[in-house]
Amino acid sequence: MQDLKLWLLVAGSLIVVALAAYAAYLLYQLYQQKQRHKAFIARAQQQQSEAIAQRNANILESVYIIAEAGRQEQCDMSEIAIRLYKLMTVLQAERSVNFSAQYPALFELYKVVEEMPRGDERKALAKQERMKDDLLRMKAESRLFDAIQAELTQILAQKA
Predict the structure, then answer these.
(1) Phi/psi zone of residue 125: left (φ > 0), alpha (ψ -120 to 50 degrees), beta?
(2) Range of the domain at 90
């Protein structure tokens, strides 16, 4: 009887030790999984940051080209305002821009022309409607010209 109790105590102890070892193994596996997950998240965040930076760089390259064209008066200020607004409002992270606050003259011109029809819609308008829109646009362009040129210079200064 004494041998049986001793044998059961030893067997029970072995079972407890085996279960404790298995629990320790599982905890170690969980720890490794958490470390791999943290590393994966860090890599994903790094890749996302790099992708955002590359996207911003591509957008800014276009912005600088358009701003330079505006400085050299190679296209209408209205077109410059529309294109710069559309491009600069999609910049992300530290490069994001509050367009209306940073470039009020460009934003004002954008607001004047944003609802005006373009392309085929413009061609479908009556001649008087087109002339009315053109007059409104040209008045805004001439009134804001100097301020827009200053803002374009400001944009190009960021390039350096």
Answers:
(1) beta
(2) 18-157
CB neighbours of residue 136 within 10 Å: 13
**Has residue 2 been placed in a domain?**
no
Distance CA 37, CA 26 (A): 16
- Whether 13 is covered by a domain: the verdict is no
pTM above 0.90, yes or no: no
Identify whether 12 is part of a domain.
no
Q: What is the pLDDT of residues 56-92, one digit of tens each?
A: 999 999 999 999 999 999 999 999 999 999 999 999 8
Count of structural domains within the chain: 1
What lies within 8 Å, CB to CB, of 104 at 6+ separation is 147
Q: What confidence score (pLDDT) does residue 160 get?
A: 64
Inter-residue contact 70 to 155 (CB < 8 Å):
no
SS3 for 92? coil
The secondary structure of residue 2, as a DSSP letter, is H
How buried is residue 135: exposed, middle or buried, by Cβ count under 10 Å (0-12/13-18/19+)? exposed
